[in-house]
Design brief:
Strand content of chain A: 15-25%
CATH class of the largest domain in chain B: Alpha Beta
CATH class of the largest domain in chain A: Alpha Beta
CATH superfamily of the largest domain in chain A: Response regulator
Number of strands of chain A: 12
Oligomer: heterodimer
Largest sheet of chain A: 5 strands, parallel
Strand content of chain B: 15-25%
Shape of chain A: elongated
Strand order of the largest sheet of chain A: 2-1-3-4-5
Radius of gyration of chain A: 19 Å
Distance between the termini of chain A: 11 Å
Number of helices of chain B: 10
CATH superfamily of the largest domain in chain B: PAS domain
Structural class of chain A: alpha/beta
CATH topology of the largest domain in chain A: Rossmann fold
Number of domains of chain A: 2
Order of helices and strands of chain B: HHEEEEEHHHEHEEHEEHHHEE
Number of helices of chain A: 8
CATH architecture of the largest domain in chain B: 2-Layer Sandwich
Chain lengths: 217, 477
Amino acid sequence: MAEILIVEDEFSINELIRRNLNLTGHRCTQAFDGLAAADLLENGKFDLLVLDIMLPGLDGYQVFERAAGTPTIFLTAKSELTDKLKGLAMGADDYLTKPFQMLELAARVEAVLRRTKKVETEFRMGELKCDFDRHQVFLDERAVECTPKEYELLEVLIRNRNIALSREKLLDLVWGYDFDGGTRTVDVHIQRLRRKLHLENHIKTVYKLGYRLEVRE
Amino acid sequence: MKRRTFFVMLILFLVFLNSMILIVSTVILNDKLSADRERCLAEHYVIASSLIGDMQALEQRGNAVEENIAQLARSYSRYLQGKSGGLAVAYSGKWIYKSADPMPAGSPEIPPDTEQKQERMVYMKDGTSPVLCVYGSFPAPWQDYGLLYVGDLKDTFSSWRYTKNFLFLMGAVMMFVMAFFLSQFLNLIFRPLRQISGASAKIAKGDYGSRLLVRGKDEVAGVARNFNLMAEQVEIQIQRLREIAEQKQQFVDNFSHELRIPLTAIYGYAEYMQKALISEEERYECTRFIMSECGRLQNMADQLLDLALLKHGEDERKAEDCSVAALFEQSGRVMRVKAEEKGIRLSYAADRDFSIPGNMEQLLILLNNLIDNGMKASRPGGEIRVSACLKESGAVVEVEDQGIGMAPDQIAHIKDAFYRVDKARSRAAGGAGLGLSICDSIVLLHHGEMDFFSEPGKGTVVRLCFPLGKGKDFTDF
């Protein structure tokens, strides 16, 4: 759970980013021009800044200069190398070009938060508790035995909660690109997780797509 | 070219110089020979006269002339030895005396043609050294005697040869001098050509700014001047092409940027709907976003098409006289509804009805676009005044609003495609940023002018001015 400031002048895109970040449990504040963003940065503390470069009022670089060390992901329609280099040279943590995909946004936000130690160390849902530091899962405060792959699969599902992940994506994220087994492996592991952790009502099968861990917050 | 000119000129010079030397030396030789001839004739005369005197004296003394003539002749030949001459005396067809030197080898045979007794004859004999011979018979009563005088030409020839060699030597020296000056001169003549060739090579490599220094008023300077004119034209044309290409590139860049925003939104919301757990309300909101972004794309496509048609002049709708009253009426029908929705007062005023030469449909698009811009800039309760009047410069139509206005640097960019004074506001209203580009194209097609007068916070006046005389060539623009 992190405090994120989204600065983007396009209302529809700003809203889209907010909705996406809300899914994975972040709290978002929205700003639609550079000056408003600068005001918000002065008065509040944010864990992450998602910042468009072409903004009315102050442009993204100017806002970034006033952000005073807040971790920043630049967001722009321009994909030119020079813009990327300028942003990164100024100390931005990452870069995202429009159009972007949901998982890409989530992954980059996650990566930056992890680097800046703002990532959650445990996750609780009902009687389930997952300790990310020690790689342990508890049910009613009692440790549950999990294979490394089962644990990793659970962590990926938690980190991307409320987002449907395809079987192929899960294979990539948990087993790696060079894994030879088919998508059946994913199904088998999902079944085991559901049974062990009583998650039958939370890990939903999404039609034609894959699996989604649903968490009401 | 230079090399060829150099050799041709040098050869011509050599031929000319050497023939002059040849002619001069021939003339000198002839001159010398004729002087020698005179000298020999004189000598012959003197010796022959003296010999005749001596022979007369011998005869008077009763001595036999025939025996003593050789004796007499010897004394003369001794005198002649100092002058390198020689003597021979003939009597009735036979030589009776010959001096040793400088008789030509194989030596004068029987005096030729003794018949012509009174005549003296001069001839040359070639041998080891050329000699000049003068032969003449004595007058009566000694007509049987003849005297041959041989004059040596060695000195004459050797001095002539010396002169001739000297002249040729000088000729050779002159040739080198000439070659040097000629090459310098040709370098001077060909320098502008070399410069032209250098400059054209530079231009060919893409350095369109290179020019020649024009000096003087001769033909080469004319060529250089024309070359500079040509280079200037090439530079201007290239510059224009570059600007056009840059504009097009700018347009494409902006266009792709403009496309990306709605595409990002559409893709993003679709993916969100597919992957996230969403409520019915959220589903409705997402689809609304997708639909409005699609509407924006549609709008952009329409306006782009309009703009393309206008820019290429493919719009073949005819020019006619458009009544201002009709124009205002048609515009009012559409725009008044919009104005009411936004709570803006819209008024049309013309001092009297007159016609603007042009295309009614395009003028309507133009006017409505401007009114639309005015409404976007106005706050609710604002006022937009459209007025028309006839002036000396032509038909003037003004659209005035009391909205937010623009700063001068914004006005400078306002006609650029995809430029927006206020991005968020314009996009929220569904604008594609092409309205004024279209207006500008229409104004251009009508040979008119469009000016903006604005102050931030106070409002904007757009003044359209159409010349009245130029309606006829509208279609073939």
